[in-house]
Write the structure tokens for this entry.
Amino acid sequence: MSSQNPAFIPGPTNIPDSVRKACDMPTIDHRSPAFAKLFKPAVAGVRRVLKMDQGEVIIIPSTGTGGWEAAISNTLSPGDTVLAARFGMFSHRWIDMCQRHRLDVEVIETPWGEGAPLAGIEKALRADKSHLIKAVLATHNETATGVKSDIAGIRRAMDAAGHPAMLFVDGVSSIASMPFDFTAWGVDVAIAGSQKGFMLPVGLAILGVSPKAIAAMETARLPRTFFDFKDMLAAYGRGGYPYTPAVGLVAGLAHAIDLLETEGLDNVYARHHRMAEGVRRAIAAWGMTPYAKSPDLYSDTVTAVKVPEGCNGTDLVQLAASKYGMAFGVGLGEVAGKVFRIGHLGMLTEALVLSGLCVAEMCMADLGWPVKLGSGVAAAQEYYRGTVPAMALAAE
Ligand SMILES: *Cc1c(COP(=O)(O)O)cnc(C)c1O
């Protein structure tokens, strides 16, 4: 008997069977034209997903965290100032990484549950008359709190301040699931990972790099070897890598992008919004609320659910895993115990989401939480029934 349930952690996400098969391939010579044939469509696909009209795509055998390191080490020098808001565990970890790299981080402390503070960013940039700030770091989707930030708004704040800093965006839990526009938002480095919206196993850091960030490499003095864009781009020119690429994942990436584009990226984003809205209806029916402070901040890829007074979100996550074999996300850092997280990104359908809500409810009942069995599921069912996309109806 198979006891495999879908996972509801906000990454790694569920892997479509066809993506698993695309990753499963015999060994090929990664210095042969056979690899170039796999690699080129993957790079071109990433370019389309990010909406890049210039610059370079870099794909590194790594994870999102490696993507952070690649972004800063290729473009900055020790002692450079970067500006970042801290409002959750992921924005915190990137700040911590910058500090460990001897960067001077100007941190805008922001309450968890809020997003990047546009006015605060503009103010800090305006105050920086001598342009010491070399980069603004933005976490597009703070996976710890389920909060999305307005990256277009950050670009507007930077432009309003007339500041030349680069804009680095952590899109690890948003790219390929929520709208992202590298070109329109004037992003200089965008960072994604294979195991979230791209629905692949973990193992790739996927980056978009602007011409301005490429030019910054010339003077950037932070040490880098494994992550050196220059080595990468030189090797790409020959259709290969400076070291052994994750060949199977690259093949899987090209296929995953094919799936996303066959559905249509706008439809993918609309589906994520719809899946997320169903989850939010369920949460409301349970008498709970998302940790995100206001609806404009609600993430369409993950919801941190505030649990009732006297309840512990981690208990639910542990019970769901041990009793029902289903994975939810625990609260991290200062929201540990206060929330549990429902990841709703990647390969998801109404039926899959409902199965997650159903198990969450059983756990709540088991733990004696004040929730009526079926209430959240019914609210999501009603929402999904009433909002079937026209495309699905037409296919009937
Ligand atoms: C998952 C995640 C990361 C870290 O990625 P890893 O692949 O685990 O290194 C970074 N930022 C955000 C927003 C994430 O969700």
The mean pLDDT is 96.
